[in-house]
Amino acid sequence: MIKKILVSQPQPTSEKSPYYTLAKQVGVEIVFRPFIKVVGVSEKEFRAQHVSLTDYSAIVFTSRHSIDNFFRIAQDLKVTIPETMKYFCVTETISLYIQKYVQYRKRKVFFGTTGKLVDLIPLMVKHKGEKYLLPVSDVHSSDINSTLDERGLQYKECIMYRTISNNFTPDEVFDYDMVVLFSPTGVTTLIQNFPDIAEKKIKIATFGPATAKMAREAGLNLVVEAPSVEYPSMTSALQAFLKEEQKR
């Protein structure tokens, strides 16, 4: 029986977080503890990539980190993002986050429903004339590139931030029945800090295909994979799994 879950993300700032709702509905304890730290690349590192932000007419965002660092770099370089810029996001939640930096205009913002970049491509193809810039982490999957090439899209990936491990301290107690991971770096952090994690058969939930792939290759006890068409969010996938667990 799962009683205590470790979610490898920062504590939600809103009391309305679906994780709190999940904890009450299913009767589990959820602890938040980030496994990674995100560090933006320096202005010098960005310039070395020979990317001019104004050369692109559309930006593809896969996370809030990509949004934060795109606009941070634009500010550092004193680049004014034109009002004609279009934004393509893997989920509606991420698209709404753009409001932190620019006025939200529906005709300029487009989003997918599954959280997967591959499922955003048909929407990008409808705007095939755009030049797409993809802000990414230094650790990212390139599996999508062949699909973008096949569809004839003009695009360029640009590293705007790095993900590094946020290691556990010796006095941190690890007494969880399940761990929720959101990136390949998170998988690496877990294994580095707890080399015998696979042998303990602690249940693992992952978000994103790259994270799931790495968890499987590491021999972890992967029981929940999100997102999917049926369960687009991690909390909905967890809820379905935990309810099934309780029936057993």
Describe the structure using short key phrases.
single chain, 248 residues, alpha/beta, Rossmann fold, 2 domains, 6-stranded mixed beta sheet, 5-stranded parallel beta sheet, 9 helices, 11 strands, 31% helix, 23% strand, globular
Word description of this protein:
With 248 residues, this protein is α/β, with parallel strands linked by helices. The chain folds into 2 domains: 4-35 and 168-247, Rossmann fold (3-Layer(aba) Sandwich); 39-163, Rossmann fold (3-Layer(aba) Sandwich). The chain has helices at residues 18-26, 43-47, 64-76, 92-97, 121-125, 145-150, 184-193, 209-217, 234-247; strands at residues 4-7, 29-32, 36-40, 58-61, 86-89, 109-111, 131-137, 154-165, 178-181, 203-207, 221-226. The strands form 2 sheets. It has a 6-stranded mixed β-sheet. Helix 4 links the parallel strand 5 (86-89) and strand 6. Helix 1 packs parallel to helix 9 and helix 7 runs parallel beside helix 8 (209-217). The mean pLDDT is 92.
In summary, what is this structure?
With 248 residues, this protein is an alpha/beta fold. Helices cover 31% and strands 23% of the residues.
* Topology pattern, helix = H, strand = E: EHEEHEHEHEHEHEEHEHEH
Beta strands, count: 11
Percent strand? 15-25%
Could you report the average pLDDT, rounded to the nearest whole number?
92
Q: Please state the CA-atom Rg, rounded to the nearest Å.
A: 19 Å
Helix-strand makeup class? alpha/beta
CATH architecture of the largest domain: 3-Layer(aba) Sandwich
How many separate domains? 2
Strand order of the largest sheet: 3-8-7-4-5-6
CATH classification, class level of the largest domain: Alpha Beta
Q: What does the largest sheet look like?
A: 6 strands, mixed
Helix content: 25-40%
First-last Cα distance? 9 Å
| Low-pLDDT regions | none
Number of helices: 9
